[in-house]
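Worked problem 6 (solution included).
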Amino acid sequence: MTGTHQKVLVVDFGGQYTQLIVRRVREQGVYSEMVPWTTAFERISAERPTAVILSGGPRSTLEPGAPDLDFSCLDGIPVLGICYGQQLMAKKLGGSVENASHKEYGLRNLTSKSGIVGVMDHDQVWMSHGDQVTSVPEGFTVTSSTDSCPVAAMENAAQRRFGVQFHPEVTHTTSGKDLLKAFLDEAGLVGDWTTENFVEEEIAKIRAMVGPEEKVLCAVSGGVDSSVMAALLIRAIGDRAVCVFVDHGLLRYREAEQVIETFGGHFHANLKAYYEHDRFFGALAGKKDP
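Solution. The predicted structure is:
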C-alpha cells in the first residue's frame, strides 16, 4: 500500500504516547507506522522510509539492556528524537546523558528557541523524564532550553537530525503540531496520504490478491481489528467474503446480538453465526481461575 506514498516510521521504545505520534503524523497527511525497537533496524534498512521518529520510553539509556538502535540504519534519513529518543541520539552520536537532579513531569516553558523549535509560537511544553542530555554531539547545536533542562532541544540541520526533550505530540505542548510539521517539511514530506487513500488502495490490493472468483473466510469477533478487516473485504469482493462469528458464551451481555446486527444489518455481510455455548462451557467444566 505504501509503495506509492512517502512514509515515516515511528520507532517505539515503550513510550505511552507512541501511537499518538503516529496519529499526529497522519493528521499532517503523511503515512506513518509504528515499529518496535526490537525490529526497527531491519525495517528501516529494508524499507528506507522518508523519515524516522524515535519515541519516548520509560527506561533510562544509562541502564544495562535498555532499548537501543544501531544508528547506521539511519544514515541519510531525517530523524526526530523525542524524550528518550533525543537521549539515545545524543548518547549514540557522542554526546552525554545524565540522570537529572530533579525528575520532571508536567508543564514547563521554553526560555529560548531557534532552529525548527523557532516555529513554535507558544513556549509551553510537556516534560516527562528522569534523564537529560547534558552535552550535545559534535555538529549539533542547542536550540532550546528551560530553567531546569539545559538541552530541551538540539539539532544538526546539515544532517537533518533533530531532538526534543519535551513531547510535541501531546496537546499540553501548545505548538507541538507546528514543530512536527516543521520536521516533516525539513524531511521533504509533501503530505500525499489520506485515510481515503488507504481504504481505496487496500480494496484494490484485496481484489488483485483474491481474484475474480475466489472466496475468503474471515473470522470476526466484533472487535475493531476484525471488523475493519471484514468491512474492507466486503467492499472489495462482496458476498465472496464469508464472515464467521462464534458465540462462545463468554461475551458481554447481548454483545453477540450486537455483532450479528452490525454485520448483518449494517455491513450486509455474508455472515455465518454459530451458537456454541454448550461446547465451550463443557470444555471449561471443572476449570478454576489459577
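Discussion: The chain has a mean pLDDT of 94.
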